[in-house]
Write a structure and sequence with these properties.
The protein is α+β, with helices and mostly antiparallel strands. The protein contains twelve helices and 18 strands. About 35% of the residues lie in helices and about 25% in strands. A six-stranded antiparallel β-sheet has the order 8-9-18-17-14-15. The chain has a five-stranded antiparallel β-sheet with strand order 10-11-12-13-16, covered by helices on one side. A four-stranded mixed β-sheet has the order 1-2-3-4. α11 runs antiparallel to α12.
């Protein structure tokens, strides 16, 4: 039987409070709340999330510990080490913890202070889980948080006490890490898509290109890309990655890098196959993206289009919308290891406006649950084009009027090519 369990089995405090019996006065000893020396921490160490490093020896007086709690209002619990162990700070065997709330609850009972005046700390020891102080932070979280435990002890390789970790502190630490990652991913996407999300491209390869994007959760899976090719052609893409947040931003960054470095002389089909191969190999078909990849030749007004499961594209000719969908569709990128993309050629005319957009625009609901819809979007775009108004102003304004107080539900993006 461990010493902590022996002490718990004896537990004279609870019995004395019930019977109002007197407890023999123990020998005098001046208690001291000590603090463990800060240990070396590694980048992924669970010790990073710990905030409490105080401990007390098991034979210290309970009222003295109550006084320590009174002086340090921010201390919710303290570790207890065996008074008979190594006298080096923190070197003694760790028995468990004493919580402030439990101690104060006992003090508040009838005759509580009289009984506790004769009691020692070991009589209040509560056993809690313990982990290696340098265990991986996420591994500790996976084992601690689902079980609902409030505290755990962090120990050195030799069993020394190095810190007391509260579940709330661990959750807060992980939350801060997530928020920092999301903020960084958001800044990265802003850099990738221009000086800031929503910036227009301007004139590329002699053609006006306009683009806009707004993520739903600080960082999202929508992104657009443009590049003037060495032979004077123009490459454009708008993609929508499954999911949101940091996971989606990983795919965005990977695909963006591939688009930047790809030799477009190898053709649009080869580009699609390379991207598909990389996403399948990296994410094992757990993530995918839909997208439209375009190569436009200004001299011949010839457009090559690879619609990879996206289908949100409309051509405005003489102010009237036309569908730009081939008879056969393609699978999204990343859902199958083998892909056979179909690429359709189109001939554009002077004055044509080609609009590609993500489903977040048309699926946005208002307070009544009604979607904005493709018809509204097409009407908004046609009216703005006819009036010479920028779609970067017209579409966001119309969407926001529609949704009112309803939060944005998905990432929103569009890309406009003016011939």
């Amino acid at each position: 039987m461990s010493r902590a369990k022996y002490y718990r089995k004896m537990n004279p405090i609870e019995a004395a409070l019930e019977s109002k019996a007197e407890v023999p006065a123990p020998r005098d000893r001046t208690p001291m709340l000590e603090r463990v020396d800060m240990a070396r921490m590694y980048s992924s160490s669970a010790l990073h999330a710990a905030r409490y490093f105080q401990f007390i020896r098991s034979d210290a007086r309970v009222l003295a510990l109550a006084d320590e709690f009174q002086e340090d209002q921010g201390l919710p619990a303290v570790a207890v080490v065996d008074a008979g162990g190594d006298e080096a700070a923190g070197g003694a065997r760790v028995l468990g913890i004493v919580r402030r709330d439990r101690l104060y609850a006992l003090l508040g009972k009838p005759f509580g202070r009289e009984v506790l005046a004769r009691s020692r700390v070991y009589e209040l020891v509560e056993e809690v889980p313990s982990f290696g102080a340098h265990e991986d932070l996420f591994a500790v979280a996976a084992r601690m948080l689902p079980g609902g435990g409030e505290y755990c002890l962090l120990l050195g390789a030799d069993g020394r006490f190095l810190g007391l970790l509260a579940a709330q502190d661990l959750a807060n630490y992980l939350s801060r890490m997530t928020q920092e990652d999301i903020a960084f991913a958001g800044r990265l996407q802003e850099r990738l898509m221009g000086s800031e999300a929503g910036a227009a491209f301007g004139t590329i390869a002699g053609r006006r290109v306009e683009a806009w994007s707004r993520p739903a959760k600080g960082v999202g899976g929508d992104f657009y890309f443009s590049k003037e090719l060495p032979d004077g052609r123009l490459f454009l893409a708008l993609c929508d990655v499954s999911g949101k947040g940091v996971a989606a931003s990983l795919i965005v960054s990977m695909v963006w890098g591939m688009l930047t470095m790809f030799d477009f002389g190898k053709g649009l089909r080869e580009l699609i196959l390379r991207i598909n191969e990389s996403i399948v190999a990296t994410f094992h078909m757990e993530k995918y993206l839909t997208g439209i990849f375009l190569v436009f030749d200004p001299a011949e007004r010839r457009l090559l289009s690879a619609d990879m499961g996206h289908s949100h594209v409309v051509l405005f000719r003489a102010g009237r919308p036309r569908s730009l969908k081939g008879p056969r569709g393609n699978l999204p990128i990343g859902v199958e290891a083998e892909l056979d993309p179909v690429i359709y050629p189109y001939r554009l005319e002077a004055g044509d406006e080609l609009l590609v957009y993500s489903d977040g625009l048309v699926e946005q609901e208002d307070s009544q649950g009604r979607e904005y819809g493709e018809h509204r979007l097409v009407d908004t775009a046609a009216s703005a084009i006819a009036g010479g108004k920028s779609l970067r102003e017209a579409i966001p304004e119309a969407i926001d009027r529609h949704r009112g107080p309803t939060p944005q539900q998905d990432d929103m993006s569009f890309l406009l090519l003016s011939v």
